[in-house]
Design a protein that fits this description.
The chain is built from 17 helices and 27 strands. By secondary structure, the protein is an alpha/beta fold. It is globular. Belongs to the glycosyl hydrolase 42 family.
Length: about 675
């Protein structure tokens, strides 16, 4: 049983001579490191040839960890092929989007449909599990690493056709779903179907396809093919170990793979956080909440973050003093039960030798980065088990949907400038900066716990979602959606109804036309007594029971609704429709009005640099995290008595207190 948040990270001692290991463990103890992720890229080490295994190095790594009282997240090592496998089985190498069969190199270089890869990877996972299932250092299993990429080889083409047979049953259903009467594409044999690539339907690039239904299904197939690899390795582990939890590390808002399809097969979610340069704090927060939502609100692991810099970008800014601590506690605030780094000691060579590490090449313990990591380790020790297993008591949900993401961004029209992530983040950011806790959920999620459901860019509507959204409003809740929502069904086919299709009754509007313009065209929008601006898409809305909240201020549709509110049901429910891409202040204004009617505006909503997050521990203890992302001291007032678990200081209700630049407080509320 854990008694504190797990702390540590990726450790690759096989890259250094054994005399370095002594220094590593001495420094790990100083930094409070208790958890090591090992074996992630160890395939060529543990299986030097097809018919031989050598576990001497892994034995030494795990035995040393156990001797030092540390636990291990043990990887199966199957993320990158060893050279001998590519030479012996050339078909394990991927074929890219341009139709080129790759030779050996890089990582994530395997074809997920290759029987040779599946056989070799599953055998290795089984051997590793058989050897270490009872090892005292074992804490969790880590299958593969950062699954991603796609293959377009003949093996994948055949596997895709088999997947389509299972999905559709017959060609009549497939032809109907893909609208193949368009451009003479009607198929008469499954063997005629080709994966959508630069050689077939994507003549203008990955996001330009002639047949969205085909491309949607290939993205789903790729998700399932890689998931099949994961499941095969998990099954191999479970033949030797029925209890130790199994995970793989995701990459947050990663477009190629639908993580909701993976979620049921994980024992706990984990992910690697590397936010884009200059991203606002809410970008990482959204990804944290997305990962927490994969397992219905259960805690996740922050499997990787850099302690200082990354090494995969054109420029790699250093985390400023205090930023690492802030990022670590932000993860805990959003549900992390582990905070791990990539990497613990810097690689000596290859492409990650300049990636940030807790311990640099010289092995010093007096660097700023090491001292910050050690200080965080001390704080996590003081925090103890207070946050373990805690859940977020959110009354606001944000729907995040990979199908809508794929369908929108591979569609020729209405606008290629609309980006799903950016729009979803804008609404999430508005809610979080207003002080609302937010659950990020799938289209299929149970919506009954929520008073507010935000569903921006709900482009593709499937199943009974429309009915369940109506139920939210019918019991007095509020549902908000936006432009380009309710456009297509699960196959990417336009609804044979007025836009927004199945959302029309709830929203009380009919979208008659839509105007798409380049990003430099800005239209004014009048929002109450103030004005804001909008870009990209301007839907022309005809109210059908809804009332205008904001109107366009220019062009021939000046005076028509840009935002509407529709009373729904007998309990005061509402459907809000935002018909254009408002700028962030406009989104903020709309979302705050929605939250305010349900009493969901946070106490510190007027202090935008201070992020708040609530968690409730299994014993009922209520925790409030305060994170100051600003470079200035935040001056706050306590809204109830509380004790800071990091400092032991108590604050009385109504008393003033301060939070320094990049400051963190974890308050146990009275």
């Amino acid at each position: 049983m854990n008694d504190k948040i797990r702390y540590g990270g990726d450790y690759n001692p096989e890259q250094w001579p054994k005399e370095v290991w002594d220094d590593d463990h001495r420094l790990f103890t100083r930094a409070g490191v208790d958890t090591l992720t090992v074996g992630v890229f160890s395939w060529s080490l543990t299986q030097p040839a097809q018919d031989s295994y050598d576990f001497a190095v892994l034995d030494a790594i795990l035995d040393r960890a156990a001797a030092e009282g540390r636990r291990v997240c043990l990887a199966t090592g199957t993320a990158a092929l060893p050279p001998w496998a590519a030479r012996a089985h050339p078909e394990v190498n991927r074929t890219d989007f341009e139709g080129r069969r790759h030779r050996y190199g890089q990582r994530h270089n395997f074809c997920p449909s290759s029987p040779a890869y599946r056989r070799l990877a599953t055998a290795l996972a089984g051997r590793v599990a058989e050897r270490y299932a009872a090892h005292p250092a074992l804490l969790a299993w880590h299958i593969n690493n950062e699954y991603g990429g796609a293959c377009y080889c003949d093996l994948c083409a055949d596997a895709f056709r088999a997947w389509l047979r299972d999905t559709y049953g017959d060609l009549d259903a497939l032809n109907d779903a893909w609208c193949t009467t368009f451009w003479s594409h009607r198929y008469t044999d499954f063997a005629e179907i080709e994966p959508p690539s630069a050689l077939t339907e994507h003549w203008r690039g990955p996001d330009h396809t002639a047949f969205q239904g085909l491309t949607l299904d290939y993205l789903r197939f790729t998700t399932d093919a890689l998931l099949g690899c994961f499941r095969a390795e998990k099954d191999a582990i479970r033949r030797h170990d029925q209890e130790t939890p199994v995970t793989t590390n995701f990459m947050g808002m990663y477009r190629p793979l639908d993580y909701h399809r993976w979620a049921p097969h994980l024992d706990f979610a984990s992910w690697d956080s590397y936010p884009p340069l200059d991203a606002p704090p809410t970008w990482a927060a959204l990804a944290h909440d997305l990962m927490r939502g994969l397992k219905d609100g259960s805690p996740f692991w922050l499997m990787e973050q850099t302690p200082s810099t990354t090494a995969c970008r054109d420029v790699n800014p250093l985390r400023r003093p205090g930023e690492l601590r802030l990022a670590t506690f932000q993860a805990v605030a959003h549900g992390a039960d582990a905070a791990l780094y990539f990497q613990l000691r810097a690689s000596r060579g290859a492409c990650e030798k300049y990636h940030g590490a807790v311990i640099g090449h010289a092995g010093r313990d007096d660097t700023r980065v090491f001292n910050e990591v050690a200080a965080i380790g001390e704080e996590l020790q003081r925090l103890g088990s207070a946050t373990l297993g805690a859940r977020t008591p959110a009354r606001t949900a944000l729907v995040f949907d990979w199908d809508s993401w794929w369908a929108l961004e591979t569609s020729d029209g209405p606008s290629r400038y609309v980006r799903y992530q950016d729009t979803v983040h804008a609404y999430y950011r508005a809610a979080r900066e207003a002080g609302a806790d937010v659950d990020v959920v799938a289209q299929t999620a149970d919506l009954t716990p929520y008073d507010v459901v935000l569903a921006p860019l709900l482009h593709l509507v499937k199943g009974d979602l429309a009915t369940r959204l109506e139920a939210v409003a019918a019991r007095g809740g509020t549902v908000l959606t936006t432009f380009l929502s309710g456009r297509v069904d699960a196959y990417g086919r336009a609804f044979l109804a007025d836009v927004p299709g199945p959302l029309g009754d709830l929203m009380g509007v009919r979208v008659d036309e839509w105007d798409s313009r380049p990003p430099d065209v800005v239209q004014p929008v009048l929002l109450g007594e103030s004005s804001t601006s909008a870009r990209l898409v301007f839907e022309i809305v005809l109210p059908r029971g809804a009332e205008p909240v904001a109107t366009y201020g220019a062009d021939f549709y000046a005076g028509t609704p840009a935002v509407t509110r529709h009373p729904y049901g007998e309990r005061g429910g509402e459907g809000w429709y935002v018909a254009t891409a408002l700028d962030q202040p406009g989104v903020d204004g709309v979302v705050r009005r929605v939250l305010a009617r349900h009493g969901l505006l946070g106490r510190y909503a007027g202090t935008p640099a201070v992020e708040t997050a609530h968690r409730t521990a299994p014993d009922g203890t209520r925790l409030l995290f305060l994170l100051n992302h600003g470079r200035e001291t935040a001056r706050l007032t306590a809204h109830r008595g509380a004790t800071d678990l990091l400092t032991g200081e108590h604050v009385e209700e109504g008393a003033p207190f301060t939070l320094g630049p990049y400051g963190v407080a974890v308050l146990r509320l009275q």
